[in-house]
Amino acid sequence: MSQPIGRLWDEVVVVPDFPEPGISFKDLSGILANPETLSITVQAWIEAIGPERPTMIVGIEARGFPLGAALAYELGCGFVALRKGGKLPRDVHRAEYALEYGTAVLEMHTDALGSEDRVVIVDDVLATGGTLGAGVDLVQRTGAQVLSAAVILDLPALNGRAEMAHRGVPVHVLISDTA
Questions:
Q1: Is 63 a residue of the active site?
Q2: How far is Cα 118 from Cα 15, in angstroms, rounded to an integer?
């Protein structure tokens, strides 16, 4: 990739013992707040994802929203939001999944995608693959094709890439936490 991806690490803040003891949360908020690193992120994904020719970008709440919307705008395709449970007002597809420290639910409007859609799913971090896996399940329930997923940070020790490989979904990762 042509952009200085390593620059992204300058904006990552590690928060120990959050959301519970023993978890080292990687806060990527600084990447979004800094115009340079936000641009690096979106441009790197354009290079990686553009050739796939998606029709829709699906963003996972919460950081997948601004990242996915920016990517959709740049690629000239639509954007669909996957929300946490209970936040969408119409009929939804629902997927419950495990996190490294609990469980959660994602929902998507049942009419958000169709069988003609070619989708890339965007989130900030790939940990166990639970969140992205739930996103894949929701998209596939509509008949749409999942082309790939895109994340800023991979946590390889939690085996999320293996989970996505098992599902046949390639993942575009910008940086990995090898610590």
A1: yes
A2: 36
